[in-house]
Description:
By secondary structure, this protein is α+β, with helices and mostly antiparallel strands. Helix content is 27%, strand content 34%.
Amino acid sequence: MSLDLRRRRGARVAVAALAIGAVLTLATVVTAAVRDRGPTRQQEVVSTGVRISVPAGWPRNATKCGTPMRDTYIVDVDLIAGCAVVPPPRVDYAEIRRANLELDPVAQLATEAGEASGHPVLRGGDVLPDGRTRQVVVVPDQRVVLIAVSGDPALAEAITRSLRVD
């Protein structure tokens, strides 16, 4: 009979150890998930006299025919004629470009006066047909347009708010 009690006690200890292990594993997973929700690491992008912050994992100019193919930032790219990607992928991106502000249809979205680093800017935006938010900032004295497109409106806003003029 004493042998049977020892087996039961051993089984209880084993079950308790498994339960404690499961709780510790769950706590580790939850802690990692909460930590991953923290602020996203950023990288600074500099082009045509302005600076912005974008997610650190975004590569430079991940485009095909001028169309972003994955989350990316776009700088120093000339217009590409006779080439198109249809349909364009639904990705997030930020683009800094020089433009003829009177003729650029995206620049025309920016109608609200503001400032960045002491420079006057115009801000605006819209929602694209696929549901992504597009925020636009025009720096008239630099003839620069910043475009931030994202499925997360807060990310597009953060990118445009990070604009600094050199």
